[in-house]
Each structure stands twice: as structure tokens, then as C-alpha cells.
Design goal:
- Residues 7-74 form the Exostosin GT47 domain.
- Keywords: Glycosyltransferase, Golgi apparatus, Signal-anchor, Transferase, Transmembrane.
- The chain has 7 helices and 8 strands, in the order H-E-H-E-E-H-H-H-E-E-E-E-H-E-H.
- It has 188 residues and is of the alpha/beta class.
- It has 2 domains: 2-98, no CATH class; 105-186, GMP Synthetase, Chain A, domain 3, CATH 3.30.300.
- Strands 1-2-3 form a 3-stranded parallel sheet. Strands 4-7-8 form a 3-stranded mixed sheet, sandwiched between helices. The protein has a two-stranded antiparallel sheet with strand order 5-6.
- The chain is globular.
- It starts with a helix and ends with a helix.
Length: 188
């Protein structure tokens, strides 16, 4: 399980296979998390197409190319770090089109650390905005109304800032380190 989580954390891409609806949460989540959408389709209508140029931050793949053995992996590996950073910078500019009113948090970072009982549990790091009094229960309730049962938050930590890379991508490894430090300080 930990190996799978590490591989996902290292990824910079989010695959949108043919047949995936363009308004699926996967596309919105990828953009909000600054994962480069890899859209596998020969013809697709995307949200906000008239206002957003997806080619500035997405990779488009023809279905016939994606079906060739190892083609997709080799193609994605051909993108340089500089090109990926440009994609992320462009994506950060269009993020407001894909945001919904997330209530009161000034920022939120999510991780799913391993759990001995259920495998993984969602944990949130939240920045309070404008000195707003926000409780762990209020955040959990807010999220619970918007996600399926297995994505409900296990724990909420309030922080002063969410660690981000220069391109704006949330640094989940730093959040995991904060979680590990928090767990270590609670051990008697």
C-alpha cells in the first residue's frame, strides 16, 4: 500500500481515459491539485472551452496512440521538468474557473496516510481565513456533505500555511512529515 501511495505522490499526471465524462471530478481534482491532465480521446468537449485553452496545461492523446503498448508511458516521460512546470503555471492561472465555493477555509491540503484497519484514511490540513473560528467538526461536516462515505475526513489539523512548490502544487510530502511529527509528539 505504501509503495502505491508513493508512486501516486511522485506522479505529475492524471489520466482521463476515453469514455470519462469531461465534467467528472477527476478533471476538476487534477486541475485543483496541479496534476497535468492527460486526456485520452479523439473528440471531446471540455468545460469552459471557450474561455480556457486546455493545450496550455493538458496533454491530449489519440485513443489509437494510447492503445499501443508502452507508448503512453514513453510519451509522458518525454516531457521535461521545465515543460511540466510551464503546464503547472498555466494551470494555476485557470484554477479559478474550476473552483467551487469551498466555504470558509483559507486553504486546504489533503493526504491519505496508511491505516492498519482500513488501508488509508483522509486527513486535512486547513488554513483558517481572516481569523475565522473554524472547528474540526465543522470542517468534517462540510466535507462529509460533498464526498462519498470512504472519503470522509479522519482528522483535521489547523496550520498557518499549506506548503506549496514554486508552481503552486501542494507539497504532500511536507504534509506527511507534519503528520508524522504530530503523531510522534502524541506518543507518551
Amino acid at each position: 500500500m505504501a509503495t502505491r501511495v508513493a508512486r501516486v505522490a511522485d506522479s505529475e499526471f492524471c489520466l482521463h481515459p476515453a469514455g470519462d465524462t469531461p465534467t467528472s471530478c477527476r478533471l476538476f481534482d487534477a486541475i485543483q491539485s496541479l496534476y497535468i491532465p492527460v486526456i485520452v480521446s479523439d473528440n471531446i468537449e471540455l468545460p469552459f472551452e471557450g474561455m480556457v485553452d486546455y493545450s496550455e496545461f493538458s496533454v491530449f492523446i489519440a485513443v489509437s496512440d494510447a492503445l499501443q503498448p508502452n507508448w503512453l508511458v514513453h510519451h509522458l516521460r518525454s516531457y521535461s521538468d521545465k515543460k511540466n512546470d510551464i503546464f503547472c503555471q498555466n494551470m494555476a492561472r485557470v484554477q479559478p474557473f474550476f473552483e467551487f465555493d469551498n466555504g470558509h477555509p483559507g486553504g486546504i491540503g489533503l493526504i491519505s496516510p496508511d491505516d492498519d484497519v482500513v488501508g488509508e484514511v483522509p486527513v486535512a490540513f486547513v488554513v483558517r481565513s481572516n481569523g475565522l473560528e473554524l472547528t474540526e467538526d465543522a470542517v468534517k461536516e462540510f466535507i462529509a456533505k460533498r464526498v462519498v462515505f470512504y472519503k470522509k475526513l479522519h482528522k483535521v489539523y489547523f496550520v498557518h500555511a499549506i506548503p506549496k512548490s514554486p508552481s503552486g502544487k501542494i507539497l504532500r510530502k511536507d504534509l506527511r512529515a507534519k503528520l508524522a511529527m504530530s503523531a510522534a509528539s502524541q506518543i507518551p
